[in-house]
Amino acid sequence: MSDDQFKPAMPTTYDPKSAEQKWYEYWVKGNYFEAGKRPDAEPYTIVIPPPNVTGMLHIGHALDFTLQDILIRTKRMQGYDALWLPGTDHAGIATQTKVEQKLREQGTSRHDLGREAFLEKVWEWKDQYANTIRDQWAKMGLSLDYSRERFTLDEGLSKAVREVFVRLYEKGLIYRGKKIINWDPAARTALSDIEVEYKELNGHLYHLQYPLKDGSGHITVATTRPETMLGDTAVAVHPEDERYKHLIGSMIVLPVVGREIPIIADEYVEKEFGSGAVKITPAHDPNDFEVGERHSLPQIIVMDETGTMNAEAGPYQGMDRFECRKQLVKDLQEQGVCVSIEDHVHQVGHSERSGAVVEPYLSTQWFVAMKPLAEAAIAAQKAGKGVQFVPERFEKIYLNWIENVRDWCISRQLWWGHRIPAWYDDATGEMHVSREDMKGDHLRQDNDVLDTWFSSALWPFSTLGWPDQTEDLKRYYPTNVLVTGYDIIYFWVARMIFTALEFTDEMPFKDVLLHGLVRDKDGQKMSKSLGNGVDPLDVIEQYGADAMRFMISTGSTPGQDLRFRYEKVEQARNFANKIWNASRFALMNLEGFSASDIDINVKLGTADRWILHRLNETVRDVTRLIDSYEFGETGRVLYNFIWDDLCDWYIEFSKLSLNGGDEAAKRATQSVLAYVLDRTQRLIHPFMPFISEEIWQHLPHEGETITLASWPTYETALEAPDAVKEMELLMEMIRAVRNIRAEVNVPMSKKVELLIKPAGEFEAAILSRNEEFIKRFCGTSLLESGISIAAPDKAMTAIITGAELYLPLAGLIDISQEIARLEKELKTLISEVERVEKKLGNEGFVAKAPAKVIEEERAKMADYAEKRDKVLARIAELRG
After folding, report:
1. What tens digit of pLDDT does each residue of 362-398 get?
2. pLDDT tens figures, 699-745
3. What SS3 string covers 541-564?
4. How far apart are CA 132 and CA 718, in angstroms?
5. How far apart are CA 227 and CA 320, in angstroms?
6. If residue 879 lies in a helix (H) or strand (E), which one and from where to where?
7. In sequence order, which residues have a C-beta less than 8 Å from that of residue 296 and are 6 or more positions away?
8. Calpha distance 633→631 (Å, rounded)
9. How high is the pLDDT of residue 268?
């Protein structure tokens, strides 16, 4: 579609469905999104945060991906070799849970199938949902380079995962050990912190009295999980607590099980909290585990991997943990051990996937020693060599977390994922970690897989071919920006930084743009349980992709949550329709006009020069704001220019020259119309790619697609401050007359007399040059203008910058009402004068503000004061 000739007339209304499918197929078929075609251009790279292959994309994805698409489309148009690399995440536990649920519905389980057959089922699931995700990407209009699409379990990424694991193991940064981890009793696997959701629940605090062995008394402890007392191996007190100093080293008889346990001293205990004595259960509490390590306490696990009490639980063996709690409390009450129970609201961890209450559980797992990796990241950030967080406040949050980071549990008791590359020799008892699969009669591979975040932590460089030194890795790494939600700054952003520094000696991206969550119209988090979720495809079906994209991207502020409102989507659709209608009008007046006919270097009218000046300012502001990731402000600037300046003013003004009979003026305005609309479509394209392509293809143009059209740049030659001043006077005058008409209910169809008293010769010349505009847009039957004009006795009055306007409307207005209106206006003007006077009287403001700002404020005050005086004079006239 490189022909620059005039295209057939545009339909009366824009049909998003047909345009979106047509243009996306055209873009993909033309390979317009593929990077690498500009070898001499500067590269610009974004890797997509890979969505999980667990189901459909949600509205949060739509926000995340739209912001990235805006950036990549802008940079592509600016001439960069722009790569937006797509991909998906295998999402270990999330995907396995979905497939297992499906198998249960079919009356079977993964254990019935066996590992290999089960994994075949999961791969089928992955293929289905990866295709679904691609379809959704297409419907959103995402300009992804599909030729480079990756998956976290594909061959290349699996190689990278093995390489990282082995290197970290060889450095002693990966180890296998016994620690307290988050355990999901339903899925029977360890969880990462991000897979634990904390919910505020109404529970109880149980106060238990443990008897001293010598019969001299008891010591009181409190717990929210009484069933774990069966695994207690000590009671701890603070070494400086005078109440208990004499008891340190004494033995206690643990109720029910009869085990003797010591009273120990540890500074972990807070003297002032509760009784000052704490039960220590090393196998079921992370803090207790550390106390137990310091004091070499036994680690007694009292339940199995399903949350069922085991043999160590004595009489409660075989009970579910919560069933055990009820029975145990009843028994302790009967024995006089549970002396009180109080209501207690507390945060309880739940598995994000299964919904089960998470159990802190002592288990042998694989860990990454995080401190050395964190120290390198901290040093880089504090030396100014780290990533740039947008907004900046998230840097402190990031640093606070990595400065207090704990070792990372990376093993999962799943089948779907990167299997841990460790082999155990049953003959010798040795363990081997290897890049290549090991074979042998006595060798068996570790059954566990790696945490999903382990592979996604490598995403920015593994997707480009690392550990091989590929051409893509050399050219497109490090990437330019990561766009993601602030809710995964610790779990993904931080881990990408650790691994990138360790394995590439570079930050994985220059900037991290953190956006908020998409909430419902009332500010609530969207969830299935609340039924307040929004499917982006439903929004697209109803309003079109461009409306959804514009609303969701321009309604966002970096780091802040966004409220999704359908009224805002409707406004965005109305905006698209406004652009469409303006373009239709232009094309009706550009018949036979081609790209080669566009010439804005001829003699132009005031309105023509003014709109080019405003376009120029808009280009400058939009470019700056996109570079600053201020998409909401970008949307405001675009909206104001297109809706107000272009559609409401310039197109109306252009009708005079287009239909006025002056062929030179007509050709000039046609050139400006074509030029401005072309540049406007380019500016709006990253936000609204489909409608902008549809319109651009109808406009006189050169090139195959707007996707590759050059981005507009600020041009000094288009500056026209004199035209701006002239237009501002005309527009203020027209607005003032129309406001007066509205006030006294005089429709535009009824002609009125208008008398104008310009402030000076300069204003008089402007009015003289633009009589036709004034007559048309003010709807006058008689127009008189001159410095000597006197105010009529009975007239509506408007005081504007540079002129006084009088509309003799005898018989149509009430003089007392006009005085009341002017008094209201006077009150506003007095208030404005006082406000600016106060500002300029503030020594701090005058000392700190730039000279230009102070000058602007003084000019405002002079303008307000002049208007105030003129209104005062007019009130006096009417009263006289």
Report:
1. 999 999 999 999 999 999 999 999 999 999 999 999 9
2. 999 999 999 999 999 999 999 999 999 999 999 999 999 998 887 77
3. HHHCHHHHHHHHHHCCCCCCCEEC
4. 47
5. 10
6. helix 851-879
7. none
8. 5
9. 93
